[in-house]
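Researcher: Go.
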Amino acid sequence: METETLTEEVPAATQPTALRRYSPPVLIAVIALHLLFGGVAAIWVVSRYSAARKLTFNAGPKSPNPSERALEHRVQLQKKMESAPPVVPKRVLTTGMSKVTLPPLPEVKMPESAPHQMMNAGGTGVAFGAGGGASGGGGGGGNGTAINFFGIRDLSTSVVIMIDVSDSMFIRTGDAAYPSKLIRHGKEQNFQVIRDEAIKLVQSLTPQTRFGIVRWSGGAYSWKTELVPATDDNKKAAADHIQNEVDYKTARPKGKPGGTRHDYALAEAFALKPETIYMLTDGNATAAEPGGGLKPIPPQEIYKVAEDGQKELPKKAHLHVIYYLNGKEKSDEENMLRGLASRNGGKFNKAVAKGRQEK
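Model: Structure:
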């Protein structure tokens, strides 16, 4: 019997199917491809999310410009001030004597006349108190002492007061009877209101201020030939002059036609070369005729006198005008006086006279 030798065939080692499928070079290429793909994918993801973050960024509020910041600051400050409690100032109390002693205030004499009514250019009434001080009126410009005459205020270093003392200023208020009989005297007259205001103006002047006084009727007369400083002695002498010499029949013409010569008075006032002129009149500007009677002075003649006077001054003066209503108001007189003031940089007021008579 023939013996058969059996040889067992051993299978080769089992290898992964994927590895058996690729050769080593191909495997390396596959791995490199995967790495490249992964890198590209990572870069794409990072860039996408970075772009998304930039698109969703929200900026803060826009900074306001300086003017807006200033406005907002003022608004906030106002709110804070309104809500804050009122500040109570601390009082400083001492029992010691002060090292600084102020000089005594000058004594001002108060007018003794009754109060009267003032009206400004618009016709609004302004009352004078018992002290005689005006509580209304216009104002001027310039430098110097603060002055006030019948409610018209100004600042000046030199001033002239012009006061009309013609017959109509006394007859229309009952101080005198036509033709030339004086009924009331001195401080008994309704005319005393004008004296009080003039004296008060003189007393308010400082020694650095110069002043003058002009009265007129048929003639015009100046108290002094030039302006004088407002010293105590000069102010006392001026007050005596106003009280005793600015009166009825004290400005009669000398060698010239009579009437109520506004032109003579303006020429006299401008010759003193002041910065400010106050002119008080009842508006009745007339000239005496050779054969008797009176005729009105044309406004242009009065304006011309003031215009010529201004030319002689280094600086144009303020000419303020007060229309003293002691009788029936007349539009032609008012227009003339308004024009005189406006042409000379001045203010215009009306004063209602005590004891006026509608004639």
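Model: The chain has a mean pLDDT of 80.
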